[in-house]
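Incident log, structure service

09:12 report received: a user says their structure output differs between two submissions of the same chain.
09:20 pulled the input from the user's history:
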Amino acid sequence: MESSLIFWIISWLFITAFCLKYLQSVLQGETKPHIYTIILYVLITGIIFYTQILSGAWFWAMYVGITCVFWILIFFLSFRYGIKDITFSDKLSLSLALISIPIWYATWDPFLAVILLIIVDIFSSYPTVRKTYTDPYSENIYVFVIEFMWLIFSILALTQINFNSSAYLFYILGFDVFMFVLIYLRRRKVSLK
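09:34 re-ran on a clean worker, output below:
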């Protein structure tokens, strides 16, 4: 139990560093958030926060609540600092995510809910992946490293690791690795032109 608390504290430090670095990166014009992805992140974290409050998981709820407030701030900053290039595939991805969210929320089977959450997140993240592929300098590569570390310590802090408690965290961990590699390789390719 004591090691779990230490890992939670380290995890909190990394999520704080992630939020501050991402915010700084947006304000300095290094990161250009995609508003569709951000609004969906607000909805996802908001629903998870609400669900955690209802289930009495106050500690985890505060964690998610802070993240939700952060994404709300980034949402408003997206109007000024975000990208303006919205494609048909971005709109399609937004629509699919919005259709999937009520299905995910209404699912009472925890296993199926985790699967649907990952599907919603894939749809939500697509616009950011697309714009990062097109412009690899529109994301700060280091925020994915910080988020990766945050997730590692979040997983270590879990007192029980099973599919329902950790699959989404492992999915985001994989997404961070994917984004890091995408940014790194695309920047190398762009710089060689």
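09:41 both user submissions now match this output. Likely a transient worker issue. Closing.
09:42 reviewer note: Residues 39 and 144 are 19 Å apart (CA to CA). The chain has seven helices and no strands.
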